[in-house]
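2024-03-11 09:14:02 DEBUG pipeline.ingest accepted 1 chain
2024-03-11 09:14:02 DEBUG pipeline.ingest length=275
2024-03-11 09:14:03 DEBUG pipeline.predict start
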Amino acid sequence: MKKNPLVSILVHTKNSQRTIKEHLESIRGQSYSNIEIIFVDNNSTDNTVKIAREFTDNIYNFGPERSAQRNFGALKANGDYFLVPDSDMILGKNVVRECVSLMLKNPRIKEIVIPEKSIGIGFWTKCKILERSFYLGVDWIEAARFFDRKTFEAMNGYDEENTGTEDFDLPQRIIKKYGRQSMGRIEEFISHDEGKISLIKQLKKKFYYAQNLNAYKKNNLDYYYLQINIIKRYLLFFSNPKKLLENPVVGFGLFVMKTLEFAAGGLGYLKGKRE
């Protein structure tokens, strides 16, 4: 294995001008330098692509959804490894360095989880920040974002029928093929910029993505039942009551938000089954 392997960062966007500059700046600011950015937009109507031109010449337009954009980016990439963040994520400066180091030290590792925390403003965003804090180290919720290229290609990349749960689907298929030891985890964080969450928009998003749950279910039945188990999710929150009680109003808001999200997801799933 090369001592200084090339890492391709596959950036996918659609009308992402609010966050894309800070996202790309966090890539440019990595302590690991052997990086290329593969930028795949999906017909943005704002300044997303204009901003991207300040950071890379590898700009493409492809769709219709994230899985297809990511797979297209992988075809255009030259790297030995792929990092697949969302365009509203800010990478800690050592994310790539830690991922490469772990891959080189342990060839059994095929994919790497990068811990995430939410940032942003507003009440519902505070609820999301609290929610995500419960997920750190929970293997049935956290998903890998850094992949060995050969493994990614052997799995045929992301399932393009799977929209919304593709972040879970690919890592879990890798585990099924190569075993639990194939997934590693680093210490450096990614910050997920939620902005100011609107509860209505959040529920619409859950409804939309849940319409494709059957595509996820067919390959990941065990994880599917874990993901839709609202009781298990609530028990996870109650596992640290001190955290909930630090701000009881936000803690209560978290339960309201998750209950409504599960309801919206259920309705979306039923709609998807009928179509």
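2024-03-11 09:14:41 DEBUG pipeline.report The chain has a mean pLDDT of 95.
2024-03-11 09:14:41 DEBUG pipeline.predict end
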